[in-house]
Design goal:
By secondary structure, this protein is of the alpha/beta class. It has 20 helices and 19 strands. It has an eight-stranded mixed barrel, surrounded by four helices. One of its GO terms (molecular function) is cyclic-guanylate-specific phosphodiesterase activity.
Length: about 475
C-alpha cells in the first residue's frame, strides 16, 4: 500500500527539472463521468489542471493530490511493440487509471510519463486510491491482443490547503518520483507534516560527513547539438542520498553548503568525480565536454580559483563551468578576472539561466564565455506565448553576434524543439532528450543513441534547412 512520508525521510523541494514543463494535455473522464473512453481530448496548460483542483479546495477544503506515473520499462516495450505503438502507451495507462479513480484529471507529460490530479477528504483516502492504481498494474495490459506487463514508478504529493503553492506540489511529486525510481516502490509525500521544512542547522552539520561518506552522487543531463544531431556535452548535477531523509536535490542543500562554508569542498569533490567519470566515458569511446555548476560565492574566492586552476593543470579533462548572470553581477570585477583564469586553463564557460535575472549587456560582452543558456521559463512557453518566441529569437541572435553558441534549457516537446531549430538554436537540453541519468545509465544512453529515440526518432525533429530558419 502507498504510505505517506514526511520530510524526516525525504526531501520535497527540487530544482525545476519537472515543475512547470510545457505539456500536451489530455483529459480523460472517469467511469463515473461517462466511461473511461468518454473523452480523450486536448487541454491547455499545466496550471489549468491545478487551478481546477484549487477551485474545489475553496469549497470543501479537500486534499489536493498530484501524482507522476512513469512506465519504467518503456524502452523494452518500444523494442517489442515498435515506436509508433509505444508512443501511445500513455493513453493506455491513462484509460486504465481513469476507470479506477473517480473525478481524476490526467495529463500526458511525455512518452512514458503521465500526471494525475484529484482531491480527497483525507490523505489516507488518497493513499488508498494510489494503491488501487498500483495494484492494477500488477496485472498485464492488453496491447493489440497481446498481454504485456508494465513496470510502473509512482511519485505522489498531497497537500491539505488551498494556500499550498502548486509549484511546491509539483516539485514534491517530482522528488517522490526520483525516490520511486531508486527504490522501485510507490512514494507519497505529505506536505502537511510539521517537519516539512528542513532543519538547516542539522543539514549544515551533516553535510561534511555526507561528502566524506559517499552520500553524494552525480547525474548527467545531455545537451544535444541540433544540426549535428549528436550529444555535444552534458551537465553534471549533484545529488545527496541521505541515509534517513532519502534523496535530497540541489535546491535544498546548495544554499546550505554556501552558508556552512562547505560549497568549496562540495564543488572540488564534484570536479574530481567528473574528471574520473570522464575517463570512464573516454574508455567507452565518448570524449565529450562535461559541465559543472559554479556558485557565485566561489567566483569571488581566489583560493578556490587557484586550487581549481592547479587541478586542471594536472589533467587532460575537458570541462565546462556554468555560471549565472547573478553570480557575475555580485562582484563583476573579480568574477570576470577569475573567469578569465578559468578560460586560460582551457575551461569552456557558459552563462546559465540567461534572462532569469537582471541581464546586463555591459557585463555579457566582457565575459570570456563561449555558450549562453536560455532560461527554461522562456523555452517552456515557447509555443503558447506571443512574447517568448521573440525573446528567445532575439537572444539567439545576440549570442551569435557575440560569437557564443546557444543552448535552450527545458525543452520538453517536439514542437518546441522544431521551433528552436527554425530559430537557429545550437543546442537543446531537457526532458524531451533525457532526464538526468546516473553514470551507468548515461553510458548506456550514449551507446544506444537514446537522444534520437527520445526526440521521436525523426531527424526532422532536430533539423530545418538553414534558408528556412533564416526566414523565420
Amino acid at each position: 500500500m502507498a504510505t505517506l512520508v514526511g520530510a524526516s525521510t525525504s526531501a520535497v523541494a527540487i530544482t525545476a527539472e519537472h515543475a512547470g514543463i510545457a505539456r500536451e494535455f489530455v483529459q480523460v473522464h472517469s467511469a463515473r463521468a461517462g466511461g473511461a473512453d468518454a473523452g480523450v481530448r486536448g487541454r491547455g496548460g499545466k496550471r489549468e489542471l491545478h487551478r481546477a483542483s484549487n477551485d474545489r479546495h475553496v469549497e470543501g477544503r479537500l486534499w489536493s493530490v498530484l501524482g507522476l506515473c512513469e512506465i519504467a520499462n518503456f524502452a523494452s516495450l518500444r523494442r517489442h511493440l515498435g515506436r509508433a505503438r509505444a508512443d501511445s502507451l500513455v493513453l493506455d495507462v491513462a484509460r486504465r487509471i481513469s476507470g479506477l479513480v473517480p473525478d481524476i484529471r490526467i495529463a500526458a507529460a511525455g512518452r512514458s510519463l503521465i500526471e494525475i490530479c484529484f482531491e480527497r477528504e483525507t490523505p489516507e483516502a488518497a493513499a488508498d486510491d494510489i494503491d488501487r492504481i498500483r495494484k492494477s498494474f500488477q496485472r498485464t495490459l492488453d496491447l493489440d491482443g497481446e498481454p504485456y506487463h508494465l513496470q510502473m514508478h509512482f511519485g505522489v504529493a498531497a497537500a491539505p490547503s488551498v494556500e499550498d503553492d502548486e509549484v511546491l506540489l509539483a516539485e514534491a511529486a517530482e522528488s517522490a518520483l526520483e525516490q520511486a525510481r531508486a527504490d522501485g516502490r510507490v512514494v507519497m509525500l505529505d506536505l502537511s507534516r510539521a517537519d516539512l521544512a528542513f532543519d538547516k542547522l542539522t543539514l549544515m552539520r551533516e553535510l561534511p560527513r555526507a561528502i566524506a561518506n559517499g552520500e553524494m552522487f552525480l547525474q548527467y543531463q545531455p545537451k544535444v547539438h541540433v544540426r549535428r544531431q549528436e550529444i555535444a556535452s552534458a551537465e553534471a548535477l549533484v545529488r545527496w542520498q541521505h541515509p534517513t531523509r532519502g534523496l535530497i536535490l540541489p535546491g535544498d542543500f546548495i544554499s546550505v553548503a554556501e552558508q556552512a562554508g562547505e560549497i568549496s569542498t562540495l564543488t572540488l569533490w564534484t570536479l574530481r568525480q567528473v574528471i574520473e567519470d570522464q575517463r570512464k566515458l573516454r574508455a567507452d569511446g565518448f570524449d565529450m565536454l562535461l559541465f559543472v555548476n559554479i556558485s557565485g560565492q566561489l567566483l569571488a574566492d581566489p583560493a578556490f580559483v587557484n586550487e581549481v586552476c592547479e587541478m586542471l593543470a594536472n589533467t587532460d579533462a575537458k570541462l565546462g563551468f556554468e555560471i549565472t548572470e547573478t553570480a557575475v553581477i555580485r562582484d563583476p570585477e573579480s568574477a570576470i578576472r577569475h573567469l578569465q583564469f578559468f578560460a586560460d586553463s582551457g575551461v569552456t564557460l557558459a552563462i546559465d539561466d540567461y534572462g532569469a535575472g537582471l541581464s546586463s549587456l555591459a557585463y555579457l560582452k566582457k565575459l570570456p564565455a563561449r555558450e549562453l543558456k536560455i532560461d527554461k521559463m522562456f523555452v517552456m512557453q515557447l509555443t503558447s506565448s506571443n512574447r517568448d518566441p521573440l525573446i528567445v529569437r532575439s537572444t539567439i541572435d545576440l549570442a551569435h553576434a557575440l560569437e557564443m553558441e546557444v543552448t535552450a534549457e527545458g525543452v520538453e516537446t517536439p514542437s518546441a524543439l522544431a521551433l528552436l531549430s527554425v530559430m537557429g538554436c545550437d543546442m537543446v537540453q531537457g526532458f524531451l532528450i533525457s532526464r538526468p541519468l546516473g553514470l551507468d545509465a548515461f553510458r548506456k544512453f550514449l551507446a544506444d543513441d537514446g537522444h534520437l529515440d527520445n526526440a521521436n526518432g525523426h531527424p526532422a525533429s532536430f533539423v530545418r534547412p538553414e534558408s528556412f530558419w533564416k526566414r523565420a
